[in-house]
Amino acid sequence: MTQKDNVDTKRHTVEGQVEVRDYVLMRNTKTNKLSPNYNRSPCEVIDRNREEVKLRKKNGVEIKRNVSFLKYQENDTSESESVAPLQPIASPISVQQTVNPSSPML
User: How many angstroms separate the CA atoms of 43 and 13, rounded?
Assistant: First the structure.
């Protein structure tokens, strides 16, 4: 066993859940407290060698990062990035009210 294996067993480390062809979010560098923690556009994992991961962004740029800088994304949002428009809700109450001019106003 190597020293790394000994330390991993001592610290009870587990293998990450990021696999090849998964979509992940990459951590941003914090410039202020209002900046988001992760980049909004997902990246595809194209290669993984232990903790080193090779990613491909949407524009085709390939970068290498450590697994600790990634967040696993459950579903692929690259195909469904547009948000569906809201549908109007049918109201059970009628909006038309008849006003009787002879009735007293309260």
Answer: 25
